[in-house]
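step: validate -> pass
step: tokenize input -> pass
step: predict -> running
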Amino acid sequence: MRVLVISDSHGEDRLLNRIVEQADCDHVIHCGDFCTDTDRLPDRSLTVVRGNCDWELVPEEQIWEGAGRRFFVTHGHRYQVNTSLMSIKYKGKEAEADIVCFGHSHFPLCEQSENMLFLNPGSITAPRGFPEPTYAVVELKRNGDIRVTYYNPNGKVVSRLGGSYSLA
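step: predict -> pass
step: emit ->
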């Protein structure tokens, strides 16, 4: 199963929809700050949360399950992700998540800690502290392994990000 994880599109719904088409995934997770009306979001299997810049009434947090994995999805601003992952780690544990997806910082991050994978796809419009816009594709393998690949909006692999992970 392939899951597109994207965040901080900040009103660029055409770019968002183009990326969703080119990524050709089974499910889409948007970690907030989509900054457009929800009817302009991709017409796909979609989990979306509200970011600090969104006006639409969508959930602040969501749980999504696919291929035997539990995803906790939030924007991240309520967990101070710009300074530390500690608060979001506690929330991930509480949610019994395998994968914690968040945005807000506009900085791509993928790291495993305490048998959870923490994934920030970066921003497709305005990266901060990283030289190019990014999004991530999570491949959930039948054997339980997880492969995360980052791309720029043109679909080119950003090879210095992502990797393969095994969670118990």
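step: describe -> The chain has one domain: 2-165.
step: cleanup -> pass
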